[in-house]
Amino acid sequence: MTESLIVLYGALPYLLRGSLVTIAVVVGAMMIGVIVGISLAVGQVYGDRWLHRLIAVYVWFFRGVPLLVLLFLFYFGLFSLLQINLSAFTVSVIVLGMISSAYQSQIFRGAIMSLPEGQMKAARALGMSDGKAVLLIILPQALRLSIPGWSNEYSIVLKDSAVAYALGVMEMMARAHFVASRTYEHLPLYFAAGFMFMILTYLGTKGLRILEEKVRIPGYSS
Amino acid sequence: MGKKFLWALILLVAIVIAGGVYYFKQGPASAKVYINGIDANFPPFAYVDKDGVPDGFDVKSVDWIAKEMGFTVKHQPMDWDGIIPSLVAKKIDMVASGMSITDKRKEQVNFTIPYWKIAQVIVAPADCTQSVDELLSNGNKIGVQRGTTEAKWMKDNLIAKGKDFSLVEYDSAPLAIEDILNGRIVGAAMDDAPAKDAMRKKPVKIIGTFGMASEDFGYAVRKEDTELLKMMNEGLQKLMASPYWEELKEKYKP
Questions:
Q1: What φ, ψ does residue A191 adopt, rounded to 5°?
Q2: Domain residue spans in chain A?
Q3: Is A214 exposed, middle or buried (0-12, 13-18, 19+ CB in 10 A)?
Q4: Is a pLDDT exceeding 80 seen at residue A221?
Q5: How far is A218 from chain B (nearest CA, A)?
Q6: Whether B69 and B180 share a structural domain
Q7: Which of A95, A128, B12, B54 lies 20 to 30 angstroms, CA to CA, from A222?
Q8: Is the predicted pLDDT of residue B242 greater than 80, yes or no?
Q9: Cβ distance of B25 and A88 shorter than 8 Å
């Protein structure tokens, strides 16, 4: 037991540096997810038939194919087909971001559709263009409503990021495994890694909770 | 809803992604630094030390060769399963990480001269009194690392020929050791070097070999990189003739 604790103590700085890699992957992926996700949601709600279909295929693909397969496809496949040589880190961020955008688009779509139809009509009646109405009237409301669902997505991406280990990204799980292989103390190290994931989940969801309170419009929430 | 706005939005996203892809479109192949892919779960040949720096018999060997032959090397820990695809896809430039030279692998990559002879052994708990034959029977469960030559050999030559045991495949040899200690498998097959490493750290012992011919370790490089192959061969010959080779053996006890 003491031996495990000594190993754990010695490995902590190394694991903590891994948590920075994990955070970098998650933040990068979530940013891609938000930008692409919002675009997809707006397109799916207001776009024409063809755009709608196109987005549906995108969402279907990225929700339907397992993460590991997508990682290999982008890491090895892109290279052999197009000679695009991306680093393991970049591929992990892009793939996690695109998967997340598929999920996030549905969160945002749900939020947009939950708004009363009159909002859009009123904005148009005031002389706003379509783009302006979406940007200034629809999205500010929809995004507020999306935060609870979005915090779900955050914790999922956080944990999915551990799969990036398969490509050799030196995130927390990979590091825990490496230290365990050297010291043969698997259980304490995986336990520590799991605990660190829990802390990151807590911090993230707590932050989003605060954000939710901060941006709430008094008397408007229903 | 104005289609222009939507298409502009989509175009923007596409440009951002394409830009990002272009920006990051530089792999190890374009740099002058050679990347050595290692399985960092393979002590004592390759692992990461306490500070997270790659270390081990192979890592230090390549470092010496790099210095001698005048190139820079970076060690990239990665998953063993994908290490040959990574080499072929130019993600890494060589694999110096206890890789056995086999005909199957030779179809995809080139190997340097052999630098280490390794035997495959069965490891069991320190208090085990059974022989290898007894362990590999009675429907016992035997652990092995996925994607290794011993995993393939046992399937082809023992299980396919009616030996009554089953294989449990693990991500790494140390994980198999963990499950031996848990009692979930009676023993595990692995290279003798990591087995000795495990013996020094945990209550397990080597029971014996199981009939698989010994293998040679070599460094793997891409087929077209003949220049690198030549350089690594020359470096290896120099290394094995130098006193540092004995120092390495003494330090890592492979």
A1: -60, -45
A2: 2-215
A3: exposed
A4: no
A5: 30
A6: no
A7: A128
A8: yes
A9: no
Phi-psi region of A6 (alpha: psi -120 to 50; beta: other; left: phi over 0): alpha
Both structure tokens of B156: 């082809």
Q: Which residues in chain A are contacts of B37 at CB distance < 8 A?
A: 168
- Among the partner-chain residues A36, A131, A175, the one whose CB lies closest to the CB of B52 is A175
Question: What is the value of pTM for the model shown?
Answer: 0.80
Distance CA B129, CA B131 (A): 7
Looking only at the bridges linking them, the beta strands covering B204-209 and B120-125 are antiparallel
| H or E element in which residue B221 lies | strand B215-222
**What pLDDT was estimated at residue A23?**
95
In a domain, B23, yes or no: no
CATH architecture of A2-215: Orthogonal Bundle (1.10)
Strands B116-118 vs B215-222: parallel, antiparallel or unpaired:
antiparallel
Query: What is the interface pTM, i.e. ipTM, of the complex?
Result: 0.73
Instruction: Report whether B112 contacts B236 (CB < 8 A).
Output: yes
Structure token digits, residue B70 = 């005048």
Contact B225, B93 (CB under 8 A): yes
- Do the Cβ atoms of B3 and A10 come within 8 Å? no
**Bridge-based pairing state of the strands B165-170 and B140-145:** parallel
Q: Is some CB atom of chain A closer than 8 A to the CB atom of B33?
A: no
Domain that holds residue B101: 28-117+215-252
Give yes or no: residues B65 and B83 share one domain.
yes
B68/B70 Cα distance (integer angstroms): 6
Of B2, B21, B47, the CB nearest to A130: B2
3-state SS, residue B77: strand
Q: Decide if B183 is inside a domain.
A: yes
Q: Do residues B108 and B56 share a domain?
A: yes
Q: Do residues A91 and A71 make contact, with C-beta atoms less than 8 angstroms apart?
A: yes
Cβ-Cβ contacts under 8 Å, A170 against chain B: 52, 77
Best CA proximity match to A35, nearest among B252, B17, B167: B17
Q: Please report how many Cα atoms fall inside a 13 Å half-sphere around the Cα of residue B196, on the Cβ side.
A: 11
B201–A contact, CB cutoff 8 A: yes
Q: Which amino acid is at B252?
A: Y
Pseudo-torsion of CA A53, A56, A58, A61, nearest 10°?
A: -120
Q: Residue B192 corresponds to which tokens in the numbers above?
A: 């003798």
Helix ranges restricted to H, A47-87: 49-64, 67-72, 78-82
B203 touches A at CB < 8 Å: no
